[in-house]
Hints:
Layout (H helix, E strand, L loop, with lengths): L3 E5 L10 H6 L6 H12 L4 E2 L1 H8 L3 H13 L3 E5 L5 E6 L19 H4 L21 H9 L1 H14 L5 H12 L5 H13 L5 H13 L5 H10 L2 H9 L8 H13 L4 H14 L4 H14 L8 H5 L7 E4 L4 E4 L5 H8 L3
Parallel strand pairs: 1-4
Antiparallel strand pairs: 1-2, 3-4, 5-6
Helix pairs in contact: 2-4, 3-4, 7-9, 8-10, 12-13, 14-15
Amino acid sequence: MSSFSVYRDTDNGSTSVSNHFIDTFLADANAAQIKVYLYLLRMAGAATSVSDMADLFNYTEKDICRALKYWEKNGLLSLSYDINGSVVGVQILSPSSYKTALPRAIQTVINPVEAQVRPVITNEEPRDKYAKPDYSADDLRSFKTQSETSQILFIAEQYLGKTLSPSDIKSLLFIYDVLGFSTDLIDYLLAYCANKDKRSFRYIETVAINWAEEGITTPAQAKTATGKYDKNVYTVMRALGKDSSPTDKEADYVKRWTNEFGFSTDVIMEACERSVMSTDKNRFAYADSILKSWHNAGVVTKRDISAVDAKYQRPKKTVDTGFHHFDMKHDYDYDEMEKALLGQ
């Protein structure tokens, strides 16, 4: 590939990294993306090339191009291409600024006659930006031999319990290459789908594209999104009389009841019903206290709850009114139960 010049929208005579870049972009970028960006900062005003950077960092040229497009997508670079699609100019933008065009002086000059028969390469997104490319055997070989991406293949085989086919590898390359998922996010994606017993790559790709459309770039964001949209969360929300979207804390409550405590839906619904009957406030906390006490008492099924209930039953009391004897039957002392459950 030909050399290109690197330009900056500002230049103070030194190589510096803005705090905004560190605070906003550093956590989500992978090693290759960070190396490329820092190297471009250092090379501002000088000439370099994709092949030079690939040799320097021991990456493939596609890795370098992928990193350049990543920063362009995030608004930190503006790239200029020639009619063959090769990068001929890079402008480093301020992390807080929007994309701007490269100076006219460094744009590629196209022969007017040639321009009539050959399309001009632009930075516009393709009509279907999530279309899977037709990867070649060389692409797959490069993906399999790189240290970072070879780990993805190993992780995938462990989660899915099979040796990956070329079609499977193309799916992972698509998720890494086109969707821009980090290895950590792919790891979480595979674990999430395997836990749902959904191991087909058609399903995995669908989930990955949905996450990309939602702007999910980290495992933490994916965890929050998948937790909130779990159907069990909304079932509990309705049972506790809540119509709003679940908060992170509310979603965490439900995940603890199902994953950590291992309770089935009918046991959780019983706790929700008792919470609604007993209090108008802090119903999630109240239900959590009930379920925590049942978990500590060894409750597994709804039938086991009766043994725990017996501990909170009051003895029968007879009230002599002077005319009749009335039995005061109270199955539960709710005031005392609430104090016990809430640790008061």
